[in-house]
Amino acid sequence: MALRAAFRNTCTLSGLLCQLSSSRSHGRVCASAVLATQQRSNSTSSKISVDFDQSTGVAVMHMKSPPVNSLSLDFLTEFCINLEKLEMDKSCRGLIITSSLPKVFSAGLDIMEMYGKTPESCGEFWKAVQEMWLKLYSSNMVTIAAINGSSPAGGCLMALTCDYRVMVDNPRYSIGLNETQLGIVAPFWFKDTMANTVGHRNTEMALALGLLYNPTEALKIGLVDQLVPEDKLMATAEQTMAKWLAIPAHARQITKSMMRKPTIDKLTSKREADVQNFVSFITKDAIQNSLRTYLEMLKKRKA
Amino acid sequence: MALRAAFRNTCTLSGLLCQLSSSRSHGRVCASAVLATQQRSNSTSSKISVDFDQSTGVAVMHMKSPPVNSLSLDFLTEFCINLEKLEMDKSCRGLIITSSLPKVFSAGLDIMEMYGKTPESCGEFWKAVQEMWLKLYSSNMVTIAAINGSSPAGGCLMALTCDYRVMVDNPRYSIGLNETQLGIVAPFWFKDTMANTVGHRNTEMALALGLLYNPTEALKIGLVDQLVPEDKLMATAEQTMAKWLAIPAHARQITKSMMRKPTIDKLTSKREADVQNFVSFITKDAIQNSLRTYLEMLKKRKA
Amino acid sequence: MALRAAFRNTCTLSGLLCQLSSSRSHGRVCASAVLATQQRSNSTSSKISVDFDQSTGVAVMHMKSPPVNSLSLDFLTEFCINLEKLEMDKSCRGLIITSSLPKVFSAGLDIMEMYGKTPESCGEFWKAVQEMWLKLYSSNMVTIAAINGSSPAGGCLMALTCDYRVMVDNPRYSIGLNETQLGIVAPFWFKDTMANTVGHRNTEMALALGLLYNPTEALKIGLVDQLVPEDKLMATAEQTMAKWLAIPAHARQITKSMMRKPTIDKLTSKREADVQNFVSFITKDAIQNSLRTYLEMLKKRKA
Fold it and tell me: Who's near C213: CB < 8 A, 6+ residues apart?
């Protein structure tokens, strides 16, 4: 429990280790508050803040759960509540997802939700991961990931689930589904989402080796759509959004559904089995031992 | 009805607007007539002429329905009759499809078949579109699109349905499934045909945004196979045809069927539902209003 | 029968004709024998030798059936027995497949197993081809093809069935599924394996035309993963192997199964029908005549 307390919010599936200072993220939140006018509404919860501009119909979701935007149960719950609110607001047509933390977009699933937990807790967590994916992959809004830092494992999944990915061209950032490197396995719908984006063979190699790609490599295989300097990220995301929003919404939404429905239906029809599969895998002694070893390594590195 | 009369044959789904002079297309038709010898047979209907060279076993189908080779019910019916004739003629082994009109291959489905029509007429029209695709995608002949002009929407589908695509390298020509730009939706079998050619992700982006590609971009994603200068188009198509015809026909045909049958079976098994789906979509007030707005815009531009 | 005796082991589906000297392959076998220490075990059968290094957990399978490593029934049987042995040996974690013959990796299926044979023999042969593919495509070991020569038809299939392909960068070597060139057809699971590697459209073109790619072209479409000079081949294969073996085995194996199971299940569920289909095709008079013509051409060229 001491271990869990110490690493709460910092132990993700991705192995990402960041030396973080919270100053920068605070600076950004302030900036967005200053920009808020009567045309903008700011909804802020503890881990995510949403800045919605009614004049453009575009919301920006800032992930701000230090140190690395781990996808914990709490985070995922907030994420889905915010997403659902925007989805039901007819005036909101586009969503840009980005990070308020330095160097990291999201480091992926929170290991602490899987280590030393009851099967019930693990199952509840996994349903929340499924829910995030189902809601985002089938969103009627135009969704753009503005990737301003590393984005391994679940962070990569979140980006892949959007309609478009712009990434900051910083060779120190990386993105990929690197689960096998930690001895665990990306489930079939992570795999399907990646294969829909970069094809079967790239996915086979990427998952087998748990590859993390730098921005140039990610662009080359189509894992992201565009690279920009850090200071051009949000402007580029907004320009791209305007282009997508210029398309008649109804036609675009039907087209999106046509492209993604088979992949979504596959998880929907196997959702409970997928939860059982995850729970029985993650609660295995061997896997729990791997996770402990990994957590101890993280602890040592941090010390 | 006045509107319909005025725009008959000029209002296509693609939004293509061409300033057309018919002189050039007439010039071409004459040229092909001059070339006809006892070895060649010329079958000419009002919208399509077929030039079959028995010495090579290759037919060239010239689309010549001014101003932009709109795929009207009449056009599609003639197309299918010609295709079926060639298919049944054992001496005909290859088919090159090209346009006799300047600047345009085919501008796609004729909007006038969908605007202000009865559900029955719309359904009849849609069956003809299906029939064109089914016959061409499953043809035992080697089929090559010699794309000598813009080829949006249904024109792009026709090209994608061939075995090989050579396009004139003129940056003013474009090709793509741009239906969403007009507020309508490419059906699943348009999508499948494109995905079989350029993969899932390129198709997702292309359909969502209704992208039209210039020849260089089209080559880059594999939407066309080869670019050539305008004066080398037919020679290149013929050389490519010779290469394909050198392969034992039976083995090539079984292989083609193996690659395409799942996609064809999908439409065949859902054909009636696909017609109903189209009819109920296109006869919606909102869609009819979109089409009217679009037609009025075309009328103004032309005036 | 005279014909069959003369061409035994030299008549493959690929049309590969090599002027072969056996000296080089003998040189290699000696070299590997010299390297053998107490840490290595050498299992040698007539057509395949296996060199297993217990210190690394990596086995190297040398195909050495002159002149061109034709996949005869005997060859395939030995191949599967060796593969099964390694698969059951828990200390063996990786397998590199290469050729001990000069200029050729494997020239593919042995035509003599299909020409003038009873339906029963043809069926038995085809089951062995299926078995090779099923075992290799689903192997729990990391499998790397070290392609040191041409690899048409069944030779290409064998390479595609591995996890990774390194090819010698010699423009005289070629690789591809060129079955249609000989008037026969790659079955659906050859097609599926290729499409999983290079996508639908590349596969459609490659199979329709029976394309053989030189190493540069093969790399470009992803048919192979890496090119190296001949003298760097085995070192590169071993370095790549080390990288793959660094991934936790259980996670990698589950991931591999997830990627490949649908393709494997498809053949498993249609295995008997696929045998019947092959037998009824290959025993057709027209196909037997094609094979005879082809064999006679080989005979003349050799004379």
Answer: C174, C175, C176, C206, C221, C223
